[in-house]
Amino acid sequence: METSKQTDSLLPVRLMQTAMILLITGLLFGFVGSLQYVLPGWLKNQLSFERVRPMHVSSVLFWIILAAMGTTLYYAGERSGSSFKVRLAGKIMQALLLVSVAGILLSYLTGNFGGREYWEYPPLLSIPIALAWVLFVWIFIKHIRNLRQQPVYVWMWLTGALFFLVTFSESYLYLIPYFRERVLLDMSIQWKSNGSIVGCWNLLIYGCSFYYMEKHDPSHTYSRSWLAFAMYFLGLFNLMFNWGHHIYTLPTHTYVRLISYAVSMTELIILARIIHGWKKSMQSSKLFVSLPGYRFMLASEYWILLNLLLAIAMSVPAINIYTHGTHITVAHAMGSTIGINSMLLLAFLHDIIWGKERKNRPWPVKSFWLLQVSLLVFWLALIAAGIRKGYWQFHEPQIPFQKMMLGLRPYFIVFMLSGCTLIIGLMASVWPLLIRSVKRAREIKNKSSLYVEHLPDEYHPIVPVRRDVAGK
Amino acid sequence: MPDRFKWTIFMTLLLSFSLYSAHLYITPPPNEQELDGVALQGKNIWQKKNCQSCHQFYGLGGYLGPDLTNTVRRRTPEQTRAFLKHGTDIMPDFRLTEDEIQAVQAFLQAMDASGTADPNRFNPTWYGNIKTD
Q1: Which of A183, A192, A213, A469 is the most exposed place for a label (fewest CB within 10 A)?
Q2: What residues of chain A lie within 8 A of the CB of B57, using their CB?
Q3: What is the value of pTM for the model shown?
Q4: ipTM beyond 0.85?
């Protein structure tokens, strides 16, 4: 019996390991893809761009998804103070995810597509992903048991996990002839689901972020405040209704644009909240200075601010017509997935994988700064290329596309070079974690519990103390 | 915040989301193009060959190649056929059969008929929205 419990405890760590391997894979394909921008036609017949791009995108997408699943399950389990007792479900979930990810990469490598942007693999492979997600939700629910007086991060985790299933299913409505035969409706639904699904893993990740702060700062009671829930519901409102900014230029219903524009502008409240709480947030972050993941947490705050400013600007239709279809959209996607999602996930992975050694761990300053500076240059190069392309769309449409792309080459060279240093920075941050995770997995195998061994004393009373507070 | 209040907000949001989604599903956009058999086959090939990785429709898709929403307006059928048949310096030759080329051309015709992707057709309003002439 003990053995089975020990094996179950490995589930979050295994998910994190797979996620890190996928990140490294995604970075390598990203490098090849960026070279194809600078050297058009390179590897055209061996590994053409329509194969490289989805291999890069899916790898990094599954890095985010699997790492978010792993950290959510770990933190949910750590909070409830229990080992995972869902051995079979956990193993099936892992197997389903591994089969789907391997199948997806193999299908791209062999040029076997059939899906849509971000989910380009044959639709059949979505079945194991959906089944794995159902098991993830089930395992998670076993940890939280009920929603009575739960902090905001539990609501975020649960709604993120459940809405993923809804939006993921919605992205396959095109398999029904009614949707498939109607091009504009189909594109509207495709971008409705694509827009919302991002919000789902963001909920998981931001939920972990709230938990992380509360865990390391027991005086942190924000997660049960009115303000925290107000911001959560505002985020959920945006997840449900602001996806329309992706399709402002699509000839769909006018009200889709108006609703999305109005809802997107509520993000100004989130922006105001960030600016208002900036000083406090920075002071709070300093409390975690001894933690190896803290700097990633701090970096994510800057990236949230930059990307939120860009997102709000892009959500104004009159600005969106200049940025839509340009590399500014790519800058927004890269800034969010690397600057926000990956920074936060790296903070959690450091927290979880280094365990009790976390406070003695020397901080890799150089790789951290290499990563941040490279990402900033990378992001700015994409914005500059986007501005140039936006100008072409409006003022020089008579210039052929290829000639315009040649004009963007200097920006692509900067993008490619900063991409290389970005890869080095990310690899230097992830590789030690991946190596340490093997030792961590061994430690877990040899202990009866995943959590208790490496938690400082102040963590243990977290559940009773919080329930007490909630009761008052 | 009391749990009852949280649940009320959550259920209101969920209900609004469900109604909005259902309304969108059953109300296709005014200029909707229903694809016939050949164009639908072209759409399948578009997905099978992952054309969206490099090309866009209405600015949605990849960035390596041009937006193809209205490409059939700017090129002759022979030019489009030549691209599809042989590829370019950057685009691979996908070895499409004659039937497949015709199907993709029919799909591109249907996309063109659905509207105009040129952002110049929009005029910004004073409150930041956009309108077409």
Answers
A1: A469
A2: 187
A3: 0.92
A4: yes
